[in-house]
Every structure is written in C-alpha cells, then in structure tokens.
Amino acid sequence: MIVGLDIGGTKTAVVLGTRRAEIVWRKEFATKPERGFQPVFDELVRTIREGTATSPKPPQAISVSIGGPLDVTRGIIKSPPNLPGWKDVPLKKLLSEKLSVPVFVEHDGNAGALAEFYFGAGRGFRNIIFITMGTGCGAGLILDGRLYRGSTDSAGEIGHIRIAEDGPLCYGKAGSLEGYGSGTGIAKLASRMFPSLWRESATVLEIYAAYKAGSHQARQVFERAGTHIGRGFALLADLLNPERIILGGLGMRIGDAFLPIAERVFHEEALPQTREVCRIVPAQLGETIGDVASLCAALEQGGLFALS
User: Fold this and answer.
1) Which residues of the chain have pLDDT under 50?
2) Residue 15 is part of a domain; what is its CATH number?
3) DSSP class of residue 176?
C-alpha cells in the first residue's frame, strides 16, 4: 500500500493505492495556502493518518506529486507560484520524521507523464510528452522509455518558452506558451482582447461557458490561443520527435474549444516525418490522473513499476 499526495494550490488529495494504481481510499481538502505551510502540513498529516487507519497493512511509502520548482532528490519545495510561502520547505524530511516511512517527491508534470506512460494513453510507446494545462503550463518527458529530468530537474518547463512577440504576461514573460496554454493565460488573453466583456479576474471556465453559448468573442479568444498552442506543439514535436503528446487539465476538459485549430497549426508547422508519427490526445486516465500520478514518485523512484 502506498500513500499518494496530490498537492495543489486549490486542493490537496490524499489517496491509498496499490502499485498497480488501484485507488482504495481517497479524501481531499481545500489547500488554502494563504494560511501558511504549517496548518496545511498539519491537515495533511491528519488526513494521512485517517486514511492509513482504514488499511489492514501499513503503507510502504509516501509518494508526493507537487508543482515545481523543487529538489526532487532531497524533496525540498522551492516556492511554487501556486503555494506562496512554501519557500525551501524540506517536505520529504518532515513527512518521513512524522510518519516513519520512506517518502518520494516528484514534479506534477513528471508524475503525470509516468501515470499516462504506465497506465494510460502512453502505454506501448517509448517517447511521449505529457502536458499539464491548468493554472500553469508544464510538461513531463518520457524519452526512449525513461523519464527525462535534465541537469537540474528543470526539464519540461515548457510554459516559459516564448512563442509570440507579445501576449499575456505569464511565467515572467509576455508571449510565453503559458500565456496562451494555461487557464490563467487564456483568461488574461480574453481580458486583453475584449476588456469590456472580461476582466483579468475572469476564469477560463467562464470564457468556455460563453463559447458554448455561442459567443463570437469567446471563439476568437480560443482561436488565438489554439494557434499559439499549435505552434508550441510543433516546436516540441520537431525537437523531441514523440509518438504521443498527451494533454491533461484543460486539454481533457475544454479541448473542443481550441484543439481543432491547434492540431491544424501543428500539422502546418511540424516536419512531415514528425507529424506522421505523433498524435495529440487527451489523458486516458481522465479525472483520475491526479490520484494515479500521486503514486508515481514512489513507483518510479522505489523501483516498483518493474513489479507491476
């Protein structure tokens, strides 16, 4: 039995699961990071103990999926933008001391890539890109059948790539992929294009609701976002030559609004030999991907995938 923690800025989920990614217990709570790290950590520990009390066997490990930047090996959280105040938090050490079990920590993008690679749309392929499309935009890379981290655990920070001369200010620069391919970015884009209709405080789901209701302006927002997202897909595909680009978050939930144009632009801009082998698909695990991904740090770093 593995305890999985899916820690985000909005909600945190605690699950009990097996090495085959079968979820046997789950509970989530509102993270409310503005209250500071310690109250969140205390609630996290209480929820873990509540879950493990239901299991006839003690957990083998605690597995954490959380947004970066972070030090994966030491399990230190380094000020994720969605968790203000979590500066240089030694989460791995704190959890291990409190609960006396091995703790493994992983970037949420990498964890999502592993989940889809072993249990979802990436099964049977050796080269995949998993893209998180939520509040921010990032990626996990499986290259030649192995998770690729880069020299400083920073591989996959695709939201920082500049794909336009100008655009919503996200990830520290205007014109970034995150400015067009994240919920935050699309909301900012809508307020830039149609300030009389949407303020910057609008949400992407509000704009999507307007799109579904037939709004011409919302359609233009998603068309512009989709154009730049498609360019981003082509850039990634030409660089890494994957067999699958797998989309989480917005790509699963509201992809009908922007994916048709993104795919058209991808096919226009990617090399023929690149686009011929690459398909863009939603995450097969759907809304369960966060739960499955939360188990993957322990499965990968603990060598348990080999036993699945």
Assistant:
1) 307-308
2) 3.30.420.40
3) B
Count of domains observed in the chain = 2
- Nearest Cα neighbor of 67 from 114, 27, 112 is 112
First to last CA, the chain: 13
The verdict on residue 304 lying in a domain is no
Domain-terminating residue out of 74, 107, 140: 107
Element spanning 221, H or E: helix 216-240
Tokens read off for 225: 């976002």
Helix axes 183-193, 204-212, angle to 10 degrees: 70
Instruction: Say if residue 130 is in the same domain as residue 49.
Output: no
140 and 278 in a common domain: yes
Which two structure tokens, joined as six digits, stand for 281?
């698909």
* Strands of 91-220, DSSP E: 103-107, 128-133, 137-143, 146-148, 169-170, 173-174
Query: What pTM, to 2 d.p., does this model score?
Result: 0.92
In this structure, the answer to whether residues 129 and 103 fall within a common structural domain is: no
Asked if 66 and 107 count as a contact pair (C-beta separation under 8 A), the reply is: yes
Rg of the chain (C-alpha set): 19
Q: What domain range includes position 19?
A: 2-107
Same domain, 136 and 92: no
Taking CA atoms, 180 is separated from 123, 173, 199, in Å, by: 29, 12, 16
In a domain, 296, yes or no: no
Pick the closest to residue 241 from 142, 163, 152 (CA basis).
Answer: 142
For 11-61, what is each residue's pLDDT tens digit? 999 999 999 999 999 999 999 999 999 999 999 999 999 999 999 889 999
- What is the rounded CA–CA span in Å between residue 104 and residue 299? 9
**Token pair listed for 223:** 């068309």
Instruction: Convert the pLDDT of each residue in 92-120 to its tens digit.
Output: 999 999 999 999 999 999 999 999 999 99
